[in-house]
Amino acid sequence: MSSSTHTVKHTITPGSGYVGRQVCKEAVAKGWEVTSLSRRGENPLPGSSLDKVSFVAGDAADMELLLRLAGEADAVVHSIGLLLDSESGLGNLNFLTSGSRSVPGDKATYDSEMKDTALNLLEALKMTKRDSSRPYVFVSAAEVGWEDNKAGTRLEDLMREKDFFLPRYLDAKRAVEKELVSESEDAGVRPIIARPSFMYDATKLDILPLLPVWFLGHKLNIGDGAFSIPLRVETAGSGIVQIMDDGSVKGVVSSSDILAAAPLAAIRRPDGVDTLTSGIASIARIPFGTNVAPELTSGSGERPPASSIRIYEFEGEHRIRSAATRLTLSHG
């Protein structure tokens, strides 16, 4: 899928959500024409690159609206997520667990919010089928893969015994994945099942305490892969767009695959890392305090799009290699 011959029209539902807004930013940076469907239809970040997004207010259960949007779209992303549904008894806590601070309705279930809306979108794509396939990215979850992992299966079985909410969440995701794959040919879509692990940023206070445990579990391969690598939400958004733009990718895309697809500098670095970069630059005989990419510091406002950061990656790598070479020559 390339924007070199025509304007790529891209529909994200919801583009105002925690993941969706990051996908929107990266899609806009590619020059794609982006439409976001959400209940409120409001730009969550006025004054940012999201100003270029067309926000549409509506219900993902409205087939007439979905048919119109699907008919215009060259690609779609479904990123509607709900961690605590009405049947969990914890629905009132969604304002804490939702990255976008959205609060679902009193009757919102995993099926109504995630499964049904994703399958409605698939049906709309089928009814507006084109000669060439269109990418459909469904943002699932890494833990869906627990069914193929002994440790994950045991953990999920224990949760089912305790009537914990997570297995029902995963069941809804799995139902969409299976339908998307089985119906992809009839619907004329290239199915992409993105399975990121925990996604976070500095505002996700519910997730941050778990990250050290999850990163350690991933690093040590505890549970034979039960712990997938967590991703900054900016990295997830960037990786999803890169994968969608790669016409060879379809099927399940793991958290590690998403990380690999995203530019290395897709996230805005904290000040501490900038200080370290300046130190490395000084070793390379660059004036002390030089920042390779001042636009990427945490206090500099909105970061450049990931697609434009490659030059900083190249320059940073070049300087570090130069420093290492000089150190080797002087001590060799």
UniProtKB/TrEMBL annotation:
One of its GO terms (molecular function) is protein-containing complex binding. InterPro entries: ComplexI_NDUFA9_subunit, NAD(P)-bd_dom, NAD(P)-bd_dom_sf. It comes from the Eukaryota. Residues 15-201 form the NAD(P)-binding domain. GO terms for cellular component: mitochondrion. It holds the Pfam family NAD_binding_10. This is NAD(P)-binding domain-containing protein.
